[in-house]
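Hi all, long-time lurker, first post. I run a small reading group and we've been trying to get comfortable going from sequence to structure in the token notation. Rather than ask abstract questions, I figured I'd post a concrete chain and ask someone more experienced to write out its structure so we can walk through it together at our next meeting. Sequence below, copied exactly:
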Amino acid sequence: MTEINSYKEGDIDPETVMLNINLQGLIEEIDKHFIRTLEMHEDDFKLAYRGQMLKVKRELQHLKNKADEAERKLMEDESILKLKHSIVWFKNEGLKLDETLEG
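-- Answer (accepted) --
Happy to help. Here is the structure in token form:
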């Protein structure tokens, strides 16, 4: 930045130059303050986002565990096991009948 003393008679008024210098300094300070504030809010957002994603991850894991448990219970259900055995028995009987008819 240029000093006021370097201006000659007829040049820009020294007071105007000083005001311009002060305004430039204020603009730089506002810019620095804006950047600091933006970084602070960005960090807050990242922390909140990370927390929310961890919450979603825990909820998804909980739902997956519930689905796995429901599937396990379904597969172990006694009536389903009896039906599966009946299917195997009917399949074997069908094969025996087929062999008898062909033979």
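A couple of things your group might point at:
Residues 78 and 84 are 10 Å apart (CA to CA).
The mean pLDDT is 88.
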